[in-house]
TrEMBL record, chain A:
Catalytic activities: adenosine 5'-phosphosulfate + ATP = 3'-phosphoadenylyl sulfate + ADP + H(+)
Database matches in InterPro entries: APS, APS_kinase_dom, P-loop_NTPase
Enzyme Commission numbers on file: 2.7.1.25
UniProt keyword terms in alphabetical order: Amino-acid biosynthesis, ATP-binding, Cysteine biosynthesis, Kinase, Nucleotide-binding, Transferase
UniProt xrefs under Pfam families: APS_kinase
Major enzyme class: transferase
Native organism: Glycine max (Soybean)
Limits of the APS kinase domain: 118-267
Gene name as annotated: LOC100786331
Protein name: Adenylyl-sulfate kinase
Signal peptide: none
The protein's annotated pathway: Sulfur metabolism; hydrogen sulfide biosynthesis; sulfite from sulfate: step 2/3
Family (UniProt): Belongs to the APS kinase family.
UniProtKB/TrEMBL annotation, chain B:
Gene3D superfamilies the record matches: P-loop containing nucleotide triphosphate hydrolases
A Pfam cross-reference name: APS_kinase
Top-level taxon in the UniProt lineage: Eukaryota
Alphabetical GO biological process terms: sulfate assimilation via adenylyl sulfate reduction; sulfate assimilation, phosphoadenylyl sulfate reduction by phosphoadenylyl-sulfate reductase (thioredoxin)
Keywords noted in UniProt: Kinase, Transferase
Protein name as it appears in the record: Adenylyl-sulfate kinase, chloroplastic
GO CC annotation: cytoplasm
GO molecular function: kinase activity; sulfate adenylyltransferase (ATP) activity
Organism for this UniProt entry: Glycine soja (Wild soybean)
Amino acid sequence: MSSVQALCQACSCAMFQNIECKLGFAKFCGINAVGLSRGRKSLLKPIMAKEDHGASLIDDGNPKCQGHQVNKPNGINQSTALSGKSLTEMSNIGNSMNILWHECPIQKLDRQQLLQQKGCVIWLTGLSGSGKSTLACALSRSLHSKGKLTYILDGDNIRHGLNRDLSFRAEDRSENIRRIGEVSKLLADAGVICIASLISPYRKDRDACRALLPEGDFIEVFIDVPLDVCEARDPKGLYKLARAGKIKGFTGIDDPYEPPYSCEIVLQQKGSECMSPSDTAEIVISYLEKNGYLLA
Amino acid sequence: MVNTIINKQDRKFFISMAKFTILNLHMLPVFIDVPLDVCEAKDPPTGLYKLARAGKIKGFTGIDDQYEPPYSCEIVIQQKGSECMSPGDTAEIVISYLEKNEPDIS
């Protein structure tokens, strides 16, 4: 009974005059329920002014009426978008037409101040079986215990959802990395310490991801473990399949891995001696602390 | 915060995907029910309605591609006639809902 009264009181508030709440509103307020019924009927009808159907494309008839044509993202648009400033003209970026970057009132610095950490991307690269996922988890756990917000983007996990339309052809592997790069940029902008864990064997793809972020926000970590050690581990049984010719284009076997020329951190395993996951995580965390990522 | 035009079919897909791939995700549809003529009159700041009416943009939502209002959603923010709520007021409506429905985090 008291809850019913509370709901009625809430409904009588001026702020709620234009609200339909899915809280049993209609059940308890007979008068308003009638109004809502009428409103609901009008809600169900699809809204469209014309009956004409067509593709979502710009008519080529009058170029002057089109937005600013950009055949590919250029420096100006990209840097403007990255800084979060409003564009005075609409852009055509990629396959999207007539889109306008909308500036948000809460910016990256505000979020970093709230979270007391600097958003960044820790990009773990290395052969299959080198320990990327293990390090990602250890790093995430350790940072969490320090009160830092992290998120792991695992290359395989992302293929379950966002990138499930991608195969392992060369173009799709690059697209996989590009999309993970874009998501990691969003997470870093949100103030999250994003830990991307994927082989990413080609320098070109890694460099393209680095270019998405401001200087210093991309921390490349090369887990330098010899191929024979990775193959001996073979945690997912893939090396065995690749050697048997059942998997083609496998990194390290019949597809190359390009070690970074220069990256922020190299975690090198010498011979057979193996650092523990928490030791390697501490190396990364020391880097983060020395460079001011853990205190915004 | 997901800020986009979502039709019914897309929303079903989104919800089903969210249920199976992300644990404890709370999707909170908010329908901003503003009449088409009001939106078109504003036409801010891109002038897209004008272009769509002139046939320069095809398949524009509301003009020659349809928007399907939700059958049921958590919040409807409805504008009646020409009176217009302020962004701060409408934000408070959503925040009030969030506060009243605080999930158990333990």
